[in-house]
Amino acid sequence: MKERDWFSNFAFRAFREYFPGLSAFDTFVDSIAADEEKSRFLKVASFYKFLVKDGRFSVQGAEEAKYFDETYRFLAICALIEWVEPRVRVKGFYSWVSKSGVAFPIQGPQELQVLHQQYKSQSRLVTKMVSFFRRLDRASKRELESSIKVHGQPMPIDEVARALYGLRSEFMHDARLIVELSGAKTLSARHMEREITLPLERLERIFERGVLLRFGYAAPPSWPK
Q1: Which uninterrupted H or E stretch holds 153?
Q2: Is pLDDT of 180 > 80?
Q3: Rg (CA), the chain
Q4: Which of 35, 123, 159, 210 is the most buried (most CB within 10 A)?
Q5: Residue 39 to residue 55: CA distance in whole angstroms
Q6: Closest by alpha carbon to 162, among 193, 125, 212, 198?
Q7: pLDDT tens figures, 100-140
Q8: What is the end-to-end Cα distance of the chain in Å, rounded?
Q9: What's the CA gap between 156 and 153, in Å, rounded?
């Protein structure tokens, strides 16, 4: 792979906490069977370093408002999850539209086209996010589930993935900045029964674990903090 030497250094610096040294990191990369997958891992890890670990977004005059930066970095994590999960099965269009609350009959080809565009843009990413978080080891799942509660009870991991996808969608479709990832307990105006206590930095650590597990890393008895 021509790009390995260039990306490998950045990727190692993004995930160095999980390896005793560069040699162990290179051994892990070598264990990824297909060159295409090696390249995917190195690029995902490198872009994670650029966009999330090192990337910062601030607004002049509003530097104290962390949620601009938290929104930017969270959206980058969602984009990287979509990239890292290239092969997922999604439900068919008819099954999706049947459960979407659409009033039947559909009023003509234009409405059908709009629904199909929504299906293509929404179904793919939410399915990838569910697939990504399902792969987590049990301890990481519990940690994430306990950070989002409904009526005081931890949210199952599939619903956590959908809730995080919902935060992303509210920004993409309604330009709503993401304030739930500050670490302070937040209650949703639209979901009064839901409370979120999830610092973005903790989500970053869980994302790192998910990426490593996706490419065959063996979950240790305890993860780096």
Answers
A1: strand 153-154
A2: yes
A3: 19
A4: 210
A5: 22
A6: 125
A7: 666 667 777 877 777 776 676 566 788 899 999 999 999 99
A8: 32
A9: 9
